[in-house]
Write a structure and sequence with these properties.
With 122 residues, this protein is an alpha+beta fold. The protein folds into 2 domains: 41 residues; 72 residues, Nucleic acid-binding proteins (OB fold (Dihydrolipoamide Acetyltransferase, E2P), Beta Barrel). The protein is 30% helix and 41% strand. A 5-stranded antiparallel beta sheet has the order 3-2-1-4-5, with no helix packed on it. The longest helix is centred in the N-terminal third of the chain and has 37 residues. The termini are far apart.
């Protein structure tokens, strides 16, 4: 049979471990509440900019290639622009670029909307 001290030390250790799990549970719950509140405050802002198409390229990926255009904006900044669909590369033509900015880490993404000039007649 165990002595009283052994049983008491076992119960104390068990209670300390249970208290640790409770504290950890409240920390995780607090983190989830804080994270969800931060996600609710994310704002997305988009601006249309005009620039000149300089070059094109494609990044290899698992699904194939991801096409992109290099566009020099009227502000002088040169950006890499995602292009949805088939790549329509027209060098030295002016086009509209959408800049999407979030207040979460200040990330900026650029998407090509289209060319300003009429499409080529073929």
């Amino acid at each position: 049979m165990r002595s009283y001290k052994e049983i008491l030390s076992f119960l104390l250790i068990r209670e300390q471990l249970l208290l640790g799990w409770k504290i950890l549970f409240f920390i995780v719950c607090g983190g989830l509440v804080f994270g969800s509140m931060m996600l609710m405050s994310i704002k997305v802002q988009s601006v249309d900019l005009v620039g000149t198409v300089v070059s094109h390229g494609a990044d290899p990926s698992d699904e194939g290639h991801n096409p992109y255009l290099i566009v020099q904006l009227d502000s002088g900044k040169t950006v890499r622009v995602r292009f949805a669909g088939a790549l329509d590369y027209r060098p030295s033509r002016r086009g509209v670029v959408r800049e999407v900015t979030t207040n979460f880490f200040g990330l900026k993404k650029y998407e090509f909307k289209g060319y300003l000039e009429n499409p080529r007649s073929e």
